[in-house]
Design brief:
By secondary structure, the protein is mainly alpha-helical. It has two domains: about 60 residues, Orthogonal Bundle (Arc Repressor Mutant, subunit A), CATH 1.10.10.10; about 150 residues, GntR ligand-binding domain-like (Four Helix Bundle (Hemerythrin (Met), subunit A)), CATH 1.20.120.530. Helix content is about 70%, strand content about 5%. Keywords: DNA-binding, Transcription, Transcription regulation.
Length: about 240
């Protein structure tokens, strides 16, 4: 169960309002085809806020993995371009969803282990907020967005570039529209509640800096996803 947690004491009403407004712009896809966000100055004028509040909001969204920045280019929704994207496009048609889950089972428990060993207190707070966003999502697309952001954050905090690249490749392959439709079918109110509890177990182990427990909790979570996805696909055949 998601427990009530105190809000970040550094957040002002304006900063929180700006954060929610920009998050909504990103999550609803109200952006050009390249995913580029307006400039800080434009956002500040549009939202009637100071640029400092806009900058803090963008920092938070970048930490959550919902946006990325490139010096001289701007701020964009989603993840930064990665060389794995081209490889993912090449192999996606040859990989089925269950094979992708097998790969996740090989990679993500180890990432959770490393995450627990290397996470800071601030990292744990960020993970809990992402889990809370996943829990509070009111539709499948939003739930998928925040769920993915949580798993990506764990992979990044783990701090192993090679393993992060492997994770990114798997994540790119599984983001195809047909695959997302299969995952949506396997996601019900009952399974979502169970997944939320499993997310909390993973984060609690990370918070305790218990790598072995974090790996076990992640494996348990992925095995549940695997089993539900398989059953959903079997019902459709």
């Amino acid at each position: 169960m998601i427990q009530d947690r105190p809000k970040d004491t550094q957040e002002t009403p304006e900063a929180d309002r700006v954060l929610q407004a920009i998050r909504q712009i990103v999550s609803e896809g109200r952006l050009p085809s390249d995913g580029r966000l307006p400039t800080e100055r434009h956002l500040a004028a549009e939202l009637g806020a100071g640029r400092a509040s806009v900058r803090r909001a963008l920092d938070r969204l970048e930490a959550e993995g919902l946006i990325w920045r490139r010096q001289g280019k701007g701020t964009f929704a989603g993840q930064p371009p990665d060389p794995t994207e081209e490889l993912a496009a090449q192999i996606a048609s040859d990989v089925d969803p269950l094979s992708a889950m097998e790969a996740r089972l090989c990679i993500e428990p180890a990432l959770a282990d490393l995450c627990a060993r290397r996470a800071t207190g601030e990292d744990v707070v960020r993970l809990r907020k992402l889990a809370e966003r996943t829990h509070d999502a009111d539709d499948s697309d939003s739930a998928e967005l925040w769920d993915g952001a949580l798993h990506r954050a764990i992979a990044r905090i783990a701090g192993n570039r090679l393993m992060l690249t492997a994770f990114t490749l798997i994540d790119e392959v599984r983001m195809g529209e047909d695959w997302q439709e299969k995952r949506h079918r396997a996601r019900t109110p009952q399974t979502r509640a169970f997944y939320d509890a499993q997310h909390q177990k993973i984060i609690d182990a990370i918070d305790a800096r218990d790598g072995a427990a974090a790996a076990r909790a992640m494996r348990e979570h992925l095995e549940t996803l695997f089993d539900n996805l398989r059953k959903s696909m079997e019902r459709r055949t």
